[in-house]
Amino acid sequence: MARTVHTFCRYCLAACGVDVTVEDGRVVKISPDKQNPHSWRDFCAKGRTAHQVVEHPRRLLAPMKRVGERYVETGWDEAISDIAARLNAVIEDGGPDAVAAYYGNPAGYSSSNLMFMNGWLDAVGTHNRYAVGSVDQNALHVVAEKMYGSSLMVPVSDVDNCDYFVIVGANPAVSAWNWLESVPGGWRRTLARQQQGATVVVVDPVRTETAERADIHVAVRPGQDWALLLAMVTIILDEGLYHRGDCADLATGVDRLRGLTADVDLADLARRCDVPLAVITDVARDFATAERAMLVTRTGVSLHLGGTVAEWLGQVLNVITGRMDRPGGRRFEAGYVDALRLADLAGATPHRSRLRGRDMVAGAHALSELPDEITTPGRGQVRAMVINSGNPVVSGPDGAKLDHALSTLDLLVAIDFVQRESHRHAHWLLPAVHWLERDDLLAFTSSLHDEPYVQYGVRAVDPPILAREEWRIFTDLALAMKRPLFGARGLNAVVATSRRLARLTRRPALEFGPYWIHRLLIATSRKVNGRKIRWRDVLDHPHGWVLGPREFGRFRDALRTDDKTVHVAPPEFVARARELLSQAPPSPPDGYPFQLANRRHRHSMNSWLNELPGLHPSGKGTQVVIHPEDARPLGIDAGDTVRVSSAVGAVELTAAVDGQPRRGVVIIDHGWGSRVFDPAGGSEPLSYGVNRNLLVDGAQVDPLSQTAALNSSYVNVEIVESDSSAERRRPHSEVDPDAHARGLED
Ligand SMILES: Nc1nc2c(c(=O)[nH]1)N[C@H]1C(S)=C(S)[C@@H](COP(=O)(O)OP(=O)(O)OC[C@H]3O[C@@H](n4cnc5c(=O)[nH]c(N)nc54)[C@H](O)[C@@H]3O)O[C@H]1N2
Ligand SMILES: Nc1nc2c(c(=O)[nH]1)N[C@H]1C(S)=C(S)[C@@H](COP(=O)(O)OP(=O)(O)OC[C@H]3O[C@@H](n4cnc5c(=O)[nH]c(N)nc54)[C@H](O)[C@@H]3O)O[C@H]1N2
Ligand code: SF4
Ligand SMILES: [Mo]
What we know:
Blueprint: E1 2-8, E2 17-23, E3 26-32, H1 45-48, H2 50-54, E4 64-67, E5 70-73, H3 76-94, E6 99-103, H4 111-124, E7 129-131, H5 138-148, E8 156-157, E9 164-168, H6 172-175, H7 186-195, E10 199-203, H8 209-212, E11 216-218, H9 225-238, H10 244-249, E12 251-252, H11 254-261, H12 266-273, H13 277-289, E13 293-297, H14 299-302, H15 307-320, E14 330-331, H16 339-346, H17 370-375, E15 384-388, H18 392-395, H19 399-407, E16 411-416, E17 428-431, E18 440-441, E19 453-454, E20 456-457, H20 470-481, H21 491-505, H22 514-523, H23 535-539, E21 545-546, H24 555-558, E22 566-567, H25 571-582, E23 594-597, E24 623-626, H26 628-631, E25 641-645, E26 650-657, E27 665-667, E28 713-721, H27 737-745
Parallel strand pairs: 6-7, 6-15, 9-10, 9-13, 10-11, 12-22, 15-16, 16-17, 23-27, 24-26
Antiparallel strand pairs: 1-2, 2-3, 4-5, 4-17, 8-14, 18-20, 19-21, 23-28, 25-26, 25-28
Bound molecules: ligand MGD (2 copies), iron/sulfur cluster and molybdenum atom.
């Protein structure tokens, strides 16, 4: 008998409501849950094929231990006791900091994963925590902390009331309207506003699917948004187009901002970003004078050396033109739990990294620092590490360096569905549980939705017998290591007692776990629209529950700054802006005339999902896109094999010649070239495309966000073999699996 389970997809923050049809314990169909009142409208092929991950032919089905060059399946008792003993030995020898963890993007879509991972890290007492933020949204965390007083206080977009959109460094037509905020169907809702007369401006060096539909496409030079946005701020302040009330009352630091803008030369800024000053002026004026407007920034802004300054100026433009907390602008959604306060409570103790001496951002150090922290001897050298839901060799900068460092560890443990590139040196592979197989309450991201919303994500099917949720793995490790989970004395005994009780009474719900915490979070949740949420009511809304209309007027009160104002000109941002201004205008270094941009693919999620049969890769990730006028002098035609190289690496791929990128910019999609190994069967790894991040230098970072120039590295492009002379064209599915390894050795 088939049954339908209503839950939501947890691959990205869009959190699309889905109907999962289950027959004989297997998922047979996933479709959008059209009764979901909030979130089904981005539903995409990734959600539709989620069961292919569950039934992945190479899925890890039991803990696997490395023995020589092979892996053997074991039970959990052996896995936990071996890992715990080895971790304790590493700590004995090198102290708690000798143990590290990296967590990737999917960890954020399971509240129990992150919570218990931090609980275990606190048990260990290590400061060596690394996170995906340093290759994603750190710039926003840094800006939110300084301007609004909390790294998590990020604004959401009121799309349906907006008359003038400025979308900077985002491609919502492909990536959905989500980053540290989510607007379900946000792009379609934006286009609906456009139909009603709203103007859409897209700032992107590439003529993307989003830019294609814009009223104005501004093809900025990669990495130079800060100059464009600073010019806009200057024009708005100089011409008196700012919001007088908010600049006098809500914001502080406007004078310091004027101090900066007084020193800029608009023509110089226009040259830096390579956008005509007349265009910048028009957009600045129209944005400032529109009735209702918003400026939105994303990864296209943050993944550069000037990323934090650009992110800051993007927020400043909203604040000084009165767009905060007003219809059609950006507002603060309080959510049903106070995530800001909980983050304060759970925050890691501040720490400076051993080698570079840099502070953590949002509780974690930067990925670019990890390789040296592993290979450089001394107290605090990382000797053991857990990679939780991540593939940093492919998603981060300079993967070759990280790959080598990982190979030198005494212990590497990977928790994932399959063994990917970053896990190839793992001593232990631990099988994770997919969202179709687990219950979850994403309470901590409830302030990132564009309206007050709650849904309990129920499981559709049971996980494989030996797969385990991360919270359970981290709890078991803390217990076996005899170190107090969450650093809370006595908690391990409570957990052990609850387990005994659950076993004796045969009532699994008595066992300490996330379920307790979900109930507690609802029991202590704040009132939304004046109404208290009860657990029973949450369960009574299987399609999800919109908790009333969007609330305005809460922003001021929610601010975490000491004086309850928005700090529009934090001194460190002003200083960094002056530093960027003092540098020579951007010009390519000798031998590397192009800038390497990036694209996401509708059917892949960063470095994964691209290998699923239902999402068969269509040659993406194996191509570099070059502007026709750049290709011609190099003798490059579509289909030719070209070599793209930087100071740190080189890859070979097929050329596509297309006018999408602006001149001087070439595009390679990120997230490809990650092998999927077969630890159980030992057959050849699967691999599609090449890893373009091998070309990104991790040594140079934005000092504020600690993010590398992932999407503006300088590269060279040269022809290797022209298509006509190629003896044989290899289809993408037969890409030589060793090509990646060769790339690593380059
Ligand atoms: N050049 C360039 N590089 C980029 C970007 C870019 O725009 N340009 N984008 C960056 C961005 S925005 C991001 S978020 C990062 C992503 O960087 P990462 O998060 O490090 O990498 P992912 O590719 O998302 O890999 C996620 C891994 O988690 C596994 N996984 C999925 N779900 C679960 C789960 O529930 N439990 C466990 N244990 N494992 C799970 C997957 O199988 C996969 O191996 O990449 C960044 N890299
Ligand atoms: N299908 C799909 N959806 C996804 C993901 C995925 O991998 N696949 N990833 C999810 C994740 S983890 C995230 S963080 C979000 C990210 O969501 P977005 O930030 O919207 O991600 P992108 O689609 O990479 O769009 C970034 C855009 O910035 C442009 N860009 C690059 N450099 C610059 C620059 O210097 N200046 C400007 N102005 N633009 C620049 C790029 O050309 C690109 O079009 O998407 C999420 N959604
Ligand atoms: S991956 Fe697709 S279906 Fe899943 S939440 Fe994101 S947009 Fe929705
Ligand atoms: Mo991301």
